[in-house]
Amino acid sequence: MSKPRIAIICGGPSSEHEVSCVSGGGVLAGLDSEKFEAILIGITKAKQWVLLPNDYPLTIINGLMPTIETNGSKVELTAQGFVINGQVIVIDCVFPVLHGEFGEDGQIQQLLEAAGLTYVGSGVAASSHAMDKAFAKQQFAAAGMLVAEGFVVSATDWQQKSSQITYPVFVKPARGGSSRGTHKVKEAKALTAAIQDALLYDDAVLIEEAIIGLEIECAVLERAGQIQASVVGEIVINPRYEFYDFEAKYLDDSTTVKIPANLTQAAAAAIQSKAISAYNLLGCSGLARCDFFYAADGQIIINEINTMPGFTGTSVYPKLWQASGVGYTELISALIETALAN
User: Fold this and answer.
1) Contact 333, 231 (CB under 8 A)
2) Which of 84, 175, 231, 258 has its CA 20 to 30 A from that of 272?
3) What is the rounded CA–CA span in Å between residue 232 and residue 320?
């Protein structure tokens, strides 16, 4: 009996292209070759799909992030499935390790569904809703969860709304990830540059009050029909960084995750419960990482939910499951098995 063939897809057109490449390399390396056969597909920044050799370099080398180049066999996704060199290739499950635009916004999910392909992770609507931070915040608030105060601006109206701001605030693209285009703004004179940068990533920008408190992460996993929350972790950032930005996340080894977080058992349990509630509220599937703030007064404030979080062996999502007793390879297998069962 042949092993299920898994297409790992990474890269893509978003600002998180390089992060996706590293995640894809992690999943490929962690995949249980006794159970599954892997095919590696890359998407260039120009949205060209190529078949990659399984030894394609997908790690950070000397601080340089990997990218997908066009020097591979062309891959087409058609109504019949994947076509490579004119041949339809049988794929049992797709693991789209794509972050941001075209990965977490429902676009790739829509294409995979149109081709009748099974895939890991959330569907079209849940992906789109979670990706839009402003929309997700409205849903969380309507369900009684605490969210940071804030509002959305565009290139044409932000100046009229700037008088409403009490500093410090965070300025970030409404639909973005990996903290690309995100800035902590402490005074009015820094606002223009922050908004202009955020607008490079999206035409809607979210301005939120800066919450003082611990940055807390909780991972959600759907496995054997059960939705489970991991132990809770705390992001600890080198003091030279203002916040958990792109460099602190990926390039500088400047961030550690304290697992478990230094919280009471009751607070950790409340965060786990809220993570599962947020996952269910948006209709997520397979996996998600929920980000919270734990304020000094004990309030738990949900920040956002990521439907395809970073997935290297050292990323926060796998680390939280490792600490919860689920190893990296086992985690990948569980996600694929959940997708195949649904």
Assistant:
1) no
2) 175
3) 7
Express each pLDDT in 236-284 by its tens digit.
876 665 544 445 444 445 568 899 999 999 999 999 999 999 999 999 9
Report d(CA 337, CA 168) in Å as an integer. 45
pTM value is 0.91
Residues 6 or more apart in contact with residue 322 via CB below 8 angstroms? 328
CB 299 within 8 A of CB 284: no
DSSP characters over 245-281: -HIIIIIS--EEEESS-S--HHHHHHHHHHHHHHHHH
Please report the domains of the chain, with CATH numbers, ordered by start residue: 5-119 (3.40.50.20), 129-146+213-341 (3.30.470.20), 150-209 (3.30.1490.20)
Choose among 150, 157, 164: nearest CA to 208: 150
Give the C-alpha separation, 308 to 289, whole Å: 8
Nearest Cα neighbor of 308 from 74, 112, 72 is 112
pLDDT digits (tens, 9 = 90+) for 271-323: 999 999 999 999 999 999 999 999 989 999 999 999 999 898 788 999 999 99
Ramachandran class of 171: left when φ > 0, alpha when ψ lies in -120 to 50, beta otherwise: beta
| The 205-209 sheet, strands edge to edge | 150-153, 205-209, 169-173, 183-185
DSSP three-state, residue 174: coil
Amino acid code (one letter) for 146 = L
Residue 8's identity, in one-letter code, is I
Angle between helices 316-323 and 328-341 in degrees, nearest 10: 100
